[in-house]
Amino acid sequence: MAEADKVVAQVEEFIEQAPLPLKNSNWGEDYTFPNLSELSSAELSTLLSNLAGWSGYAIRLMMKVGIAKDIMEDTLSAKIAKNTVTIMIKYPKATKDFVLGKILTEDIEAIELKTKLISKNAELEALRRLTSLYELQLNAVSREVSRRSLDIKQGF
User: Fold this and answer.
1) Helices and strands (H, E) in the chain, number of each type
2) pLDDT at 67 > cutoff 90
């Protein structure tokens, strides 16, 4: 497991060299999505900025979690492949499920990796859904901005 953690740390260090969105000061605060037609232009701009910032930060988190998950999956796959040979020598007629079950009950590192992978998969799915929510709301705000701009051009 230590090797996977080292690789994750190296990749995260590499990623941190790029300009990435920071966590907004209001990240984590619940909000009510407002009736957009009732917002002033300044309020609309603030909402648009917040949603873009939250979306960017969620994508940053998704990237880090996704990379960690991928490295853990690759490490677990290598560990399973390595242990499969040993188990197949002892149990030549063993099924794939038997071999996997044996590895995940006997190899502490494999068990830890599998447990962390379950968590990373859940985190990644939550971040995907959160990002989707922000994008949906960003699109709605953007449409309202466009509608207002068109109204001004048409003299309404």
Assistant:
1) 4, 0
2) yes
Q: How far apart are CA 54 and CA 132, in angstroms?
A: 11
One-letter identity of residue 148: R
Residue 11: predicted pLDDT? 85
Return the structure tokens found at 14. 């590499």
Token couple for 75: 């490490």
Map out the domains of the chain as residue ranges.
40-154
Nearest CA-CA partner of 99 in 115, 90, 87? 87
What would the two tokens of residue 92 be? 């030549």
The token duo for 59 is 């994508």
The DSSP line for 81-117 is HHHHHHHHHH-TT--HHHHHHHHHHH-HHHHHHHHHH
Beta strands in the chain (DSSP E): none
Q: Are 59 and 131 in contact (CB under 8 A)?
A: yes
pLDDT at position 78, please?
93
Q: What is the pLDDT of residues 71-125, one digit of tens each?
A: 999 999 999 999 999 999 999 999 999 999 999 999 999 999 999 999 999 999 9
| Average pLDDT, integer, range 52-62 | 95
Could you tell me which of 2, 10, 118, 128 has the C-alpha nearest to residue 61? Answer: 128
